[in-house]
Amino acid sequence: MSRTATLRRYGKSARKTRAEILFAELPRSPTKKDAASESEPEAKNEPLGEVTDITQQFASVTLDATAWTADCPGTQTSELLSSSPVRERAASGSEPVSCRQPEDNQQRQEHHDEEESFQDEDLSFDGLRILTWDDLCPSGNRIEKIAEASYAEVYRITNQLGTSIIKVVRLKSPIKPQTKAQERSGLVDEEPHSEDDMLGELRISEWLADIPGFVVYKERYIVEGKATKALLQTHQAFHRRMKRKDPDRLQFYPSPSRYLDETRFLVVELGDAGTALEDFELTSISQVWDIFLHTALALARAEDLIQFEHRDLHEGNLCIRRVRPATTKPFSSSSSPLRFGFSGLDITILDYGLSRATNPYPDRPQSPSSLHSSSTNPSVVAYDLEKDLSLFTSTHAPLQTNTYRAMRSFLIHGDRVPLMLDPAQHAATGAYPKRSRNALNGKGKGKAISWRDYHPYTNVLWLAYLYEYLTSHFRGEDPRELEDFLRETAELRTHLDPKAPPRVLSFPCAGEVIRFAVEAGWVGEDQLVGDMDGSWLEGNSRVG
């Protein structure tokens, strides 16, 4: 639909190239440096080298390199260890456990096909240590299931050495069949995942390692064998808790009671990122401000450095932790519009299973120590969401599944509108006409959906999701706080809303959301760049 609209310009003329702004060196929240130093004492002197490498790869930053057209309000035409409880415990053990054989020949025959494909799968994980669940969480340690990501389960392990988070992904390997009771309950088993999908996520995690707001990956290894009693108990407790919150919630991950001696998992150990947003109680409006703005800022940095799209940023993939006590605005600044940095909270973005990113070091040889030496060094890593259309056809959790559908609708039309939120519209793959002026004139050609392409508008869709989640889950004592927040952010919400009228110009990326926040006075430029002369926010980018 062609339309005429006034282009709204944000920002000032740039005084220097944004490549001169060492983006990854931007300060974290006021005390995040202290928090990071506790968990990463050995890495204090490393970031400068990483930043230098990154800036040498980019002649300029592409946050606002091109103008946005009024016809496509969301499109862009241009396209970034310390000791741990688990590691210390594993290192103190004996030789790694070798792969054991099935106890039952008939059971082995039932899963013959799965085992054959698993043997191929395992090739890319040669060299990783093989542990048992007892090795991972021995007697005296505490394990707690805290979240379920799109393709992984997340646990917290605590012992006298501290706390670690582990992300557990089942590889292609046999498990026990469902019991009759499980079949009657409608249990849907999450499918095991291919080596390409797993290696892609690990690569993205390495590219994000120096960007504040993203999880720190410590180590990875293979865990195989039957589950411990503690693992089964925390799995059951988690699902009882989730059922109380959402009686219609389905269980997608197999019960640990079904693990066999040959059931294998890739386990990635993370730094403790705090509490999942879905379990965090929002009691002050400063928490709402900080969680939203911290998340937008992390996404903006990642867009700039590696053309990153998360594509799955729901409340289970965002963790919250306190890094300092909450503060109030000084009386002398009571009239200031500044809203960022008063809650004492920081955020960590998890789970890049559905994500997309561009390799910031395409010419650098692949490190054998980081990934398997035979792996290629791809220019783009992206999960092909066309392989799993159930994401787009599901009717469970409407706000979340509508966000998946809005992403796919944008890829189909190359525009925010028309917005396809009917699950039936996403039931098949294929070529779709691009919604452009040529398409309207009958000259458009069909184009298959490619999730490898860079569309940072998907980050805006998830920020819109986050905004709605935060405002609908606010539990502060004074309802006027939320009323004031909604009134103050009404224009922001309009530009975030994928359902806004066609005449409304949408933010094209998370970077433009931060630009809007800075120009509104909610975030101070000094909070982003410290004493550096200039800002990455300077420029002539437009909301489009």
From TrEMBL:
Domain Serine/threonine-protein kinase haspin C-terminal: 389-515
Region annotation Disordered: where it falls in the sequence: 1-51, 72-121
Known catalytic reactions: L-threonyl-[protein] + ATP = O-phospho-L-threonyl-[protein] + ADP + H(+); L-seryl-[protein] + ATP = O-phospho-L-seryl-[protein] + ADP + H(+)
InterPro entries noted in UniProt: GSG2_C, Kinase-like_dom_sf
Bias-annotated ranges (Basic and acidic residues): 31-47, 101-114
A Pfam family matched in the record: Haspin_kinase
GO BP annotations listed: intracellular signal transduction; mitotic cell cycle
Organism: Canariomyces notabilis
Enzyme class, UniProt record, top EC level: transferase
Name of this protein: non-specific serine/threonine protein kinase
GO molecular function: ATP binding; histone H3T3 kinase activity
Keywords recorded for this protein, A-Z: ATP-binding, Kinase, Nucleotide-binding, Serine/threonine-protein kinase, Transferase
Signal peptide: none
Enzyme Commission identifier(s): 2.7.11.1
A single GO cellular-component term on record: nucleus
Keyword Phosphoprotein attributed: no
